[in-house]
Design brief:
Strand content of chain A: under 5%
Oligomer: heterodimer
Order of helices and strands of chain A: HHH
Number of helices of chain B: 11
Shape of chain A: elongated
Radius of gyration of chain B: 22 Å
Order of helices and strands of chain B: HHHHHHHHHHH
Largest interface: A-B, 7 and 8 residues
Number of strands of chain A: 0
Number of strands of chain B: 0
Structural class of chain B: mainly alpha
Strand content of chain B: under 5%
Shape of chain B: globular
Helix content of chain A: over 70%
Largest sheet of chain A: none
Chain lengths: 100, 308
């Protein structure tokens, strides 16, 4: 394991932790909107950390830039689809959860 | 695959039947579709692990991506998401296991004599790749050595689209546009989609990629454009979509007829222009596949509402 691997390791583990947190949120949050929120947070930050770790270890700059482009596109897709889902849910009449 | 299987390999190998059984046994159709898409992802990883990146690309894009979209669209058309299988979920899963075991057993029985032979057709194909217009062996096999099969595949796709149109009718669904965010997002992403599709098409001659993967990316873009209403509803452009639909097949048949007339054998490309011919054929295929995906999606959508 050289220097780059040691630099990438905490980033990769951090990304995995955010994905785990997002999955826990998906399973435990009380309604659709909070679950969407958990998923998109995990997607953005988790994927970002994983991509950063992989970019550090990548053999060339071109591959690292392509990885970052993948992250940007995935963030855009996650945001657009979360927006579409919550909009459709609001129209279908699903009420946000309220603390009783 | 070389060396003993790693923990990751075992995870993939166990996840495949687990996901399949769970999807088969689900009563909730939404859950079944979601599990099917997840199964597609694991399958794509398995193909990549087995050293078949072209199949992995096709599986991720077509097998779980587009098919997932078609399934969700069909779910919306069904209107119900809970299915009570008449024999109970365990018995339908058992039937699935039995069918899978029978298929696997048949394959093992038929292929057992070939275990221990090296690498299948690789030694036959690789020395002769230079004779074709492509340097990537998969593209060479698909479009040159077995080009006739690909020609017939495109004909089958066209027949499928004809069947879908006959069943669903030609009228386009015209729904209320979903809102400015999706439309603007789609307008921003459309050039990226076209660029990715063009690059995958171009790279297919020397690297994993090619017409089917590029056509799927373009088709996904077409479906997104229809869903987001980014480019407006244009139900009147029938002739354009028909021309584009026929493009791939026409180019392919044209090249086949040309080679038959000029060189006496079907799809016997002249050595100098083989690369250019292959690229022309692949471009036609990409356009046709994109339109096919758009038409299949249209066929799975709910029929037009009368109050649109």
């Amino acid at each position: 394991m050289n220097v780059r691997d040691w630099l990438a390791l905490p980033l990769l583990v951090g990304g995995a932790f955010f994905f785990l947190a997002g999955t826990v949120g998906l399973l435990r949050f009380p309604d659709l909107y909070t679950r969407l929120h958990a998923l998109t947070k995990a997607d953005n930050l988790g994927l970002g950390l994983v991509v950063l770790g992989l970019a550090i270890r990548s053999p060339s700059l071109a591959i690292a830039l392509k990885l970052l482009l993948v992250w940007v596109l995935a963030m855009g897709a996650a945001a657009a689809s979360a927006h579409a889902i919550s909009r459709a849910a609001l129209r279908a009449g699903i009420e946000p959860w309220r603390r009783r | 695959m070389s060396g003993p299987p790693s923990a990751f390999d075992w995870t993939l190998a166990l996840a495949l039947p687990a996901l399949s059984l769970y999807a088969l046994a689900s009563r909730n159709l939404v859950r079944a579709v979601a599990l099917f898409v997840a199964l597609g992802l694991v399958l794509a990883l398995t193909w990549a692990k087995l050293g078949a990146p072209d199949v992995a690309l096709a599986e991720a894009a077509l097998g779980s991506g587009i098919t997932g979209v078609l399934l969700v669209s069909a779910l919306g058309r069904l209107g119900r998401v809970d299915v009570r299988p008449p024999k109970g979920p365990l018995r339908s899963a058992f039937g699935g296991v039995l069918a899978a075991a029978a298929t696997a057993g048949t394959f093992l029985f038929l292929l057992a004599p070939t275990f221990g032979e090296p690498a299948g057709l690789r030694d036959t194909v690789l020395p002769r790749v230079g004779e074709t217009g492509a340097s990537h062996p998969v593209t060479a096999v698909l479009l040159d050595f077995r080009g006739y099969d690909t020609l017939l595949e495109i004909a089958v796709l066209l027949l499928a689209v004809l069947g879908v149109r006959a069943a669903h009718g030609v009228a386009r669904t015209v729904e209320a546009p979903p809102g400015p965010i999706l439309a603007e997002g789609m307008k921003t992403i459309a050039p990226v989609i076209v660029l990715v599709a063009g690059y995958v098409l171009w790279a297919g001659t020397s690297a994993p990629g090619g017409a089917f993967q590029a056509g799927t990316a373009l088709g996904a873009g077409a479906v997104l454009a229809a869903l987001s209403g980014a480019f407006g509803q244009r139900p009147g452009r029938e002739w354009a979509s028909r021309v584009l639909l026929a493009a791939g097949y026409t180019v392919f048949v044209g090249v086949a007829a040309g080679t038959l007339a000029a060189r006496g054998a079907l799809l016997d490309y002249p050595p100098g222009s083989a690369g250019a011919l292959l690229l022309a054929i692949e471009t036609g295929l990409t356009i046709t596949i994109a339109i096919v995906i758009r038409e299949l999606f249209e066929g799975c959508s709910p029929p037009p509402r009368s109050d649109a």
